[in-house]
């Protein structure tokens, strides 16, 4: 088999990139060792936000929200702009979020600081007794990772992209620093362009090409819960509290409350859920919304944050190997960034440049010791 471009990794980033390349008429194949979305994508918390604390991530996420809206309307998968509500408990937090809001507003993101009373109007179940303000952006939102990823995949295939599930990359054949082929469990694929979009597994693919630079991406286990259903639209936005162990929670289409906290284990590929997480998540989420104490937890599961030292991904071309690219290390932000990263990577591959600030995610920054400001992160 032959393919001009091979993407390793069938999560939202790899699938979005295949979709964008296929739209441009490129011959592209995705390799996924299990089924699409089975890595981190189908385990994510559904959130999509523009409320970051630096210019690059704000710009990328503003574009991503535009693409989420466009494709959800075209393809019919659920994407709701129900907002993100960051609860603030100290003057120090308020000062930091004023700075964040200023950056966001500069790029047309309509975030504003609101009072505890206004926050309670948005989520009436909130305990606002300790809150002194909140950061609110109504154009942030959430999407169904199952429907969205499947929709992108189906439309990519309609445009002639090939998606090979249960096909694992075993080795990458390189001659004189040029990629020639990929060995898989199902045979050899001749190709000249490879994109590593495996996120938590990216270091394993980097090892296959004997990557000449250090790109530190490690898998960390994070857990989430979902509760029994409550009255629909009781908790529409994603609600965030850094005070209560980086908590996040929102309500799904089915009525259950999905949420998590900053309970991190790793580096590890072990996804066995820990009881300690359940004890802490019930404590902290019920401090934000006391009514949650009365709910049954239906399920808990675990997934990966593929973390870099500054919580920003590595996105770009590796100059020493022709043509090897990486888009990995999203540190919990891969799902929300997926459509914009797909567009950005497709620009780099087909045009050699992009209008989005890809230099912020320079894979060489770790080697130089030039880390970025840590990306705003919760969960």
TrEMBL record:
Q: Name one GO molecular function term.
A: sarcosine oxidase activity
Which key words are in the record? Oxidoreductase
Q: What class of enzyme is it?
A: oxidoreductase
User: Superkingdom, according to UniProt?
Assistant: Archaea
**Record keywords: Transferase included?**
no
Q: What is its EC number?
A: 1.5.3.1
One term under GO cellular component: cytoplasm
Xref: InterPro entries: FAD-dep_OxRdtase (IPR006076), FAD/NAD-bd_sf (IPR036188)
Annotated ranges, domain FAD dependent oxidoreductase: 4-348
Among Pfam families, the record links this protein to: DAO
SUPFAM superfamilies membership: FAD-linked reductases, C-terminal domain, FAD/NAD(P)-binding domain
Q: Return the protein name.
A: Sarcosine oxidase, beta subunit
What is the protein's species of origin?
Thermococcus sibiricus (strain DSM 12597 / MM 739)
